[in-house]
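Bit of a strange request maybe. I'm writing a small parser for structure token strings and I need a real example to test against, not something I typed by hand. Could someone generate the tokens for this chain?
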Amino acid sequence: MQQGSNHSHNRELIIVVDDDRVSREIMAGFLEKLGFTTICLEDGHYLTFSCSYFAHVKAIMMDMNMPVLNGYKATKRIRKVCRKNPALDHLPIIAVSGVEFDDHKCIKAGCDALLKKPLTIKRLYDALVDCNVVCNPLELIK
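Reply from user aminoacidic:
Good idea to test on real output. This should exercise your parser:
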């Protein structure tokens, strides 16, 4: 597990789950510019052990194609945990993938938005806003 470089107790937390280190670093960098603290995980399996974090998580960025536990299965497990806890009624999960993915399968698994790599900060910002996640204003980011 990696923690983003700008950890602050005043910032909202977003979990980044991706098996590719460079993709994790890019997403974490964009998210930190948007005003979030990040925790980076390299596999969906690790996320299922992090369920205690969910109460403090603003959103999850989920790579859909990972070894061990892919994003589809991890998302389904998260949704199962969230259904048992009313405080986690709707934790946004944003699907991210560098390869073609089945939009219907992502939505059916419980994803709220879909992003194709390579990411841009603008597309990431738009997806977060669409999921009602409040970010730093994009026009203030350099």
